[in-house]
Amino acid sequence: QVRLVESGGGLVQAGGSLRLSCQATKIIFSTKTIRWYRQAPGKEREFVAGISSNGATDYAESVKGRFTISRDNGKSTSYLQMNGLKPEDTATYYCETVRLWGQGTQVTVSS
Question: Which residues of 69-93 are buried (b: 16+ CB within 10 A; e: fewer)?
Answer without folding.
Answer: bebeeeebbbbbebeebeeebbbbb
